[in-house]
């Protein structure tokens, strides 16, 4: 569907469901992270880019304090919640993300009330491409518009992250929300997760004859199941033992000395975070020098670190990386939180189809379900579209 057709359909559906026209329509994208995984909650660096896939949200303010939610991907029902009664645990399924954002805005002391919302998302869910952040950010931006809040991208990202942490119960960092809100077309976003300072780093794939494939393994990842939280705890414990505010404050040069002081169980976690932060710096250097093809080796090294040290890969993501590289990808790695989800592969554009076929063949030979393949094009961050 063209962007116009999506917009018309969303407005049409909104009218049918809510009985009047929307006051505006917003869109917020999913993301892939090029490098800098599990660094955000260590105050570190990341380099995500927005996908063309977005959550499109039509919205209109209500003055009776009700939040009425409908999703084209839902079960057809409208969920009705009283904004004044919103509390963590008080909404289920996908509705906890929009409800959480409205709750988080009010927790921040902002006098926001009800709204009618209807959304339609093309961001695949459970694929590690931040479909929940896209949803949160679309709602945050729509509320900003409907209620004239005038919050900045980083402020809205903090609201959305707080909604996910404290309302939906997922202890994520801030990268996904910053990516969805702050990315720009044609660029990757160099994010400092401590200061929330960002820099747009031009990422011209086509100009360099490159293509970035997303291979969705179909293994649903769930960051709320405890493994993510325990990794995060491990990192925070290591920082405390080292007397540092966060692992971001440890340099590659200081790493050997620091590792010698830590209990064995924390060593691989710290090694991953510190080397991964350094890889982000190198990746930005390569992109700035106009050498995006040099990202390949960094991607593959990042995957090895996530597989061997951080241990968040799985047989499907490992196989996708190995098969892509064997078939001619310049580099590949899992992207996002891990435990399943998607792999990105940087490939010469002419080889995109053959690399995708090789990965699909390798999956069939291993008795894994066929991966879904998308092309990642560096796209715009969240915006109002009507
Ligand atoms: C998930 C979280 C992010 C980040 C990544 C790993 O996507 O939501 O905050 O921690 O995992 O880099």
Describe the structure.
The protein is α+β, with helices and mostly antiparallel strands. The protein folds into two domains: 3-200 and 380-384, Ribosomal Protein S5, domain 2 (2-Layer Sandwich), CATH 3.30.230.10; 204-376, GHMP kinase, C-terminal domain (Alpha-Beta Plaits, 2-Layer Sandwich). Helices cover 40% and strands 21% of the residues. It has helices at residues 3-18, 96-107, 131-146, 153-167, 175-182, 227-241, 255-261, 267-288, 295-310, 315-326, 352-365, and strands at residues 24-33, 45-46, 48-62, 66-71, 79-82, 114-121, 187-192, 198-202, 210-216, 331-335, 342-348, 372-375, 383-384. The chain has a six-stranded mixed beta sheet, with helices on both faces. It has a four-stranded antiparallel beta sheet with strand order 10-11-9-12. Strand 10 and strand 11 form a beta hairpin. It is globular. It binds alpha-D-galactopyranose. Alpha-D-galactopyranose binds next to helix 5.
- For the record, the CATH class of the largest domain is Alpha Beta
Q: Give the radius of gyration.
A: 21 Å
Q: What's the overall average pLDDT, rounded?
A: 97
Ligands, deduplicated? alpha-D-galactopyranose
Biggest beta sheet summary: 6 strands, mixed
Overall helicity = 25-40%
Structural class: alpha+beta
CATH topology of the largest domain: Ribosomal Protein S5, domain 2
Strand order in the largest sheet: 5-4-6-3-1-13
DSSP summary, beta strand count: 13
């Amino acid at each position: 569907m063209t962007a116009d057709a999506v917009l018309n359909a969303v407005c049409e559906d909104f009218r049918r469901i809510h009985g009047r026209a929307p006051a505006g329509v917003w869109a917020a994208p999913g993301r892939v992270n090029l490098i800098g995984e599990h660094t955000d909650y260590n105050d570190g660096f990341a380099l995500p880019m927005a996908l063309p896939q977005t959550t499109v949200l039509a919205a209109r303010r209500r003055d009776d304090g009700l939040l009425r939610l409908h999703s084209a991907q839902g079960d057809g029902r409208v969920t009705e919640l009283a904004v004044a009664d919103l509390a963590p645990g008080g909404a289920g399924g996908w509705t906890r993300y929009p409800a959480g954002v409205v709750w988080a805005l009010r927790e921040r002391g902002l006098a926001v009330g009800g709204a009618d919302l209807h959304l339609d998302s093309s961001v695949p869910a459970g694929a590690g491409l931040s479909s929940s952040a896209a949803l949160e950010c679309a709602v945050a931006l729509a509320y900003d518009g409907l209620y004239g809040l005038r919050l900045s991208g980083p402020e809205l990202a903090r609201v959305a992250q707080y909604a996910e942490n404290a309302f939906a119960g997922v202890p994520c960092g801030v990268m996904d929300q910053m990516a969805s809100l702050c990315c720009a077309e044609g660029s990757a976003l160099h994010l400092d997760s401590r200061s929330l300072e960002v820099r747009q780093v031009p990422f011209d794939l086509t100009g360099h004859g490159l293509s970035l494939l997303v291979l969705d393994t179909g293994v649903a990842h769930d960051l709320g199941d405890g493994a993510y939280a325990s990794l995060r705890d491990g990192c925070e414990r290591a920082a405390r033992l080292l007397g540092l505010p966060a692992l971001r404050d440890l340099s590659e040069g200081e790493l050997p000395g620091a590792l010698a002081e830590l209990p064995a169980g924390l060593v691989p976690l710290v090694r991953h975070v510190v080397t991964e932060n350094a890889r982000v710096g190198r990746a930005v250097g390569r992109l700035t020098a106009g050498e995006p093809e040099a990202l390949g080796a960094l991607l593959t090294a990042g995957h090895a670190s996530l597989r061997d040290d951080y241990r968040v890969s799985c047989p499907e993501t490992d196989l996708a990386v190995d098969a892509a590289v064997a078939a001619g990808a310049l580099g590949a790695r899992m992207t996002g939180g891990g435990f399943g989800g998607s792999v990105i592969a940087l490939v010469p554009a002419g080889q995109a189809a053959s690399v995708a076929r090789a990965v699909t063949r390798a999956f069939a030979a291993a008795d894994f379900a066929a991966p879904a393949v998308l092309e990642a094009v560096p796209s715009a961050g969240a915006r109002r579209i009507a």
